[in-house]
Amino acid sequence: MLLASIDWFGQPIHVRLFIVYLAVVACIALTYSLRLFWQLYSLRNREVFSLQTIRDRAISADLLADYALANRVRCERPLEAKRTQDLASEARGKGTDLLLQSAESRFRYLWEISYAKVGAIRRLVPLSLLLCILTVIYGAYPTFSAAFGSGSVTGRLALYETGAALLDRLSLGLFVCAILYVISTYFEGVLKHRRACWEYFYANSTEKLSAKPD
To answer: What is the pTM of this model?
Structure first.
């Protein structure tokens, strides 16, 4: 492992601070990732809601929004005109259209909160990369001086040891940045897919509910 090649007690203070920073960043990313995973996948084994289910059962707008964010809603095949009109009349009588509007507002709120968490993880990438580069540049001369100043190695060997130490620090920082980027990209794609599915479901459902009898 990368950390195995880095001696904590043998590192200068700026490297220790950098490692502590990476540990804090990892904890933040892990916390956000677990929350996002719970929101997006905790209902994966539950039933799938359809417009028919919403009409026939007492479902709250909050519950419908939670199911939508977990991708547990679906659109049925287009109905015949007569059946669509009957369904619309019954659904309007039960306030399904108002429920969908409330669920739409709730879904957008939940989606924006989730996307903000993804953005928080993504914004850690450039900051971590910048600190990684600064740590490597700042520690180049002190690391070489410590290796060459001991008097037990030649200048060439000191340069080799310095390069190896700097490469370890750079690799550790880049590894954390790569993990953060992969996590944020994955959840961003999932959230965009969930929003597209909900928008299709909402548009299809409102279209059916707006059908008027002949």
So the answer is: 0.81
